[in-house]
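Hi, can you check this record?
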Amino acid sequence: MEGLKRLEALQQAALAVSAARGERVFPELVGALGRILHCELALVGELHGTEVRTLGVHGTDGYRQNFAYPLATTPCGDVVGRSFMVFADGVVERYPHDESLRRFGARGYAGYPLKDGSGAPIGILAILSKQPLVNHELVEAVMKIFAVRAEAEFERRAHEQALAASADQYRSIFNATADSLVLRDAAFRVVDVNPAYEAMSGRRREDAIGRDVLTMSPQSLNEHVRELHSRALTGERVMFESHARRKDGSRFHIETRGVPIRHRGAPHVLYIGRDITERRGAEEALRSSEEQYRAVFNATADALVLRDASFRIVDVNPAYVAMSGYTREEVIGRDRLIAAPRETESIIRKLHARALAGEAVMLETTRVTKAGVHREVELRGVPILFHGEPHVLYIGRDIGERKRAEAALRDSEEQYRSIFNAAADALVLRDDDAHVVDVNAAMTILSGWSREDVIGERRWIFARPEAAELAAAMHRRVIGGETVHFEVQGVRKDGSPIDVEMRAVPMLYRGKPHALGMARDITARKRAEAERDGLEGQLRQAQKMEAIGHLTGGIAHDFNNLLASIMGYVVLAVERAEDPKLGRYLEQALASSRRARDLIQQMLTFSRGQRGSPHVLDLAEAVGRSVKLVRGSIPATLEMRTDLQPDARVLLDPVQLDQVLLNLAINARDAMGETGRLAVHVRPAEALRAVCSSCRQRFAGHFVELSVSDSGPGIAAHVLERMFEPFFTTKEVGRGSGMGLATVHGIVHEHRGHIVVDRGQEGGSRFRVLIPALDEGAPIAASTPQSARLLKRAPLAGRVLVVDDEAPVADFMRELLASWGLDAMATTDPLGALSAFTADPRAYDLVITDQTMPSATGLGLARELLSRRPDLPVILCTGHIDPIAQRELESAGIRALLHKPIEPDELYGLLATHLA
């Protein structure tokens, strides 16, 4: 019973491997393997470095998606490239690091290595079972059948890939062929061998080239092979089998076919050798074991026909049925040819007699299928003993694909031409004397030169005349065997410039050294790189400006704290000064402090890019004050004139006005140098119609004009087009950021104004800043507060807590409040202030706190204080320019926000309001 099950399983395996074909051959094979061996998972995979990529997977729920897995830590790693291995049970314990085995719940495992014709590992056939594997011998026999079929499919696909490869044409196919290839000329000398020959024989290509003796066959076959060589030179295909010895002394069996070809115009013979040691071993196994015979017989991908001594067909395999179209029952017992033309029968009968005498025979012939389709077949006859009687096993292989591959080798020149012309890169082929032999269509398009213009010429198609010697030197290096790669800026036929990436490689063309140059247009890429470099420079400049802004903000905060103390004590001194002259001195010091405060405000507004706070200004009066600031920024050798017409009212931020005037004046200074004349004018510009030089828009209306003119050389037309662009500058590196006029543009247009630039006929330039005019009745913003001596303040009552981490500021505030009649307590410790307040929340009527302190913020302190006493008035002070959102102030319960340095009048008003 066990034997019947074994025979049935082998028969099922034979039928399955013969039925599997097409694109799904691998899924069909592993599907049948899983069903026959009753295992939960079967797979066939291809070796890729250190991992396996499956080509077919079968699970208990049907086919699964292919996947890849590493060989390391898996049982497959011990099978690939070695031999069949089976674990009946406990595979998880043997490979504890393979998590996939544990997740699958595997117990039994079997793996069969897949190898190519040279014995090199190419993949694996494996099964996993959740139950122990019982019959090891049956598992091995069945998997061997499927492995033989899978190897044949690998070989067929490899052959297809080799055929599809372009023969750079002949060389690519020649080197990629898995069979050993030896090309001999008419004098029997070796002209070429492929890597498969080197791997099979162990001999280097250099050792074989030029030899006229056999290197892989015994010397006794030398005369016979030379006779076959002569026959092949006349156009006949020949074949012989022999034992051979590798260079290391190991022996193997080889089958060699000789195919007549023409190589470089002369007759040659291409000998295709295949290591058939394994096949011969299989044939011997067939003769020694009928069961082995049956398994291998049915699993073989080649068509097999077994004939007895009387030429009767004893057996055929599924591959024969598939190739011929005849069923097994239709041919068994026939003693004539079934699927071959009648005219070949006498030839095959003679070969049959020779095979019965013990000779292996071979014939290439044509078979006609039952459907009438003609197939080219290689037929080999092998003498065997079957049931103790002499028989001949005929092995038929469809060689139509191989024939086409051989035709592809002969057509390599045409293939070269197709690939050459289809290449997207521009190609130029030159001989060793630099004459142009060929160009492709892409080259004519890229260069503008036609094929007829350049064939036979020695001109360098892209190189400029001054680069001709360099191009010639590069060509000599390539002819010498070196590959070169460089970039060059050349010209097309029409003279237009082009950036080209050039690569030149040495190659043999029609047996002579040539240089193949490949050119690619990189003009757009180079332009993009240049633009990227420019943008990177702009980004670096922007980052530098941002860093300056942060630095300025930090300095201004500290300076504001200093000014707060200075101005506070000056105010106290002014209020107590009895000497009128001393009072005037103190008032002048206070005015200078306020100017320092305004200057810091200008620095912060400029460096932090903040929007302005427009006020109604008399532009003439405001410019008059700004001119004093500008005068300190230009050399004393420059003459400065002003003409400021009063009552020109505009809506403008005075700080940003200073920026506009300062930037225009510095530009004028740089244009003139050390000597010249700078003029500043303010005048009405009513009913004006013009085009803005920066935004290019037409505008009209009533404006007030602020103009800055110089006596310099004037502005070039190309500079005028770009002068308002950010980062554009004509100054030397380090002398300008390119942001001056861009800043002017931004400020002016933020205030709904425009800029008109005039160039004088005799040099010089004039920048006209035009701001919309306001009605004469518009109220002008209040000027700087009056002197503290002139103010009369009523005494205040209440107890105030002052919190500021700067001791001078805290002391000044305490004294100032005390001078107004208040009971003031000052501290530099916000946490201590919170503790004191918590102890007695009703002890203070109002709190004044700084925003930025080491251990707390003013907003945070206010929240803590108000959580203990919600009705407490809190005034927040800050020396930073960064705005605090109104919702933050409201959420913290802040009644008012003051900016340092604090104006006493503003503080007094707030105290009077919140202490009433």
Summary: The domain at 423-521 is CATH 3.30.450.20 (Beta-Lactamase). The mean pLDDT is 81. The first helix runs from residue 2 to 19. Residues 106 and 130 are 5 Å apart (CA to CA).
